[in-house]
Amino acid sequence: MQNPPPVQMSSQPPVQTAPGKSSTGLDENIAALLSYVFGWLSGLIFFLMEKDSRLVRFHAMQSILFNVLFGVLAFVLWIVLFVVFLIATQVSGALTTLLSLVSVLIWGALLIGVLIGWVMCLVKAFQGQYFKLPVIGNFAEKFSAK
């Protein structure tokens, strides 16, 4: 009995296609990345300027929604903590100290979460991939398809 011939692996790496051009004149992945850099403003600029690339429009809209959502969450959290602090100062000084520590932890968790989400969006946009954030990704996809 003879052994079957060994399976030959291709020594060439897979061919990577060059990123397409957007209507802004930039590569799609660069334009998608830049739509996150200056928050909602750069997202709005690229969303309004881009006519051809669905990838750029998606990431631009997701940048707008991500930053608006962060702004709304930060404002609501600030109002809630302000009211809680007003009540706590009337009750006890120790309670106010405890609440200030809790609020620092809440703000820290929110900011770290936003930073992680922002960096992930930057990386995925540069790689030319569609990366949908949990809540706003579907909205961004719907709005960018129009």
Question: Helix and strand layout, with pairings?
Answer:
Blueprint: H1 28-37, H2 40-49, H3 54-91, H4 93-126, H5 137-144
Helix pairs in contact: 1-2, 1-3, 1-4, 2-3, 3-4, 3-5
Mean of the pLDDT scores? Answer: 87
Q: How large, in whole angstroms, is the Cα Rg?
A: 23 Å
Query: Spans of 5+ residues with little confidence (pLDDT < 50)?
Result: 9-16
Q: Main β-sheet: number of strands, strand sense, barrel status?
A: none
The total count of helices amounts to 5
Strand content: under 5%
Structural class: mainly alpha
Straight-line N-to-C gap: 64 Å
SSE sequence, one letter per element: HHHHH
Which descriptor suits the 3D outline?
elongated
DSSP strand tally: 0
State the helicity in percent bands: 55-70%
Number of domains: 1
Key traits:
146 residues; mainly alpha; 5 helices; 68% helix
Written description of the protein model:
- There is one protein chain.
- The chain has 146 residues and is mainly α.
- The chain has one domain.
- 68% of the residues lie in helices and 0% in strands.
- The chain is built from five helices and no strands.
- Helix 1 runs parallel beside helix 3.
- The longest helix has 38 residues.
- About 5% of the residues have low confidence.
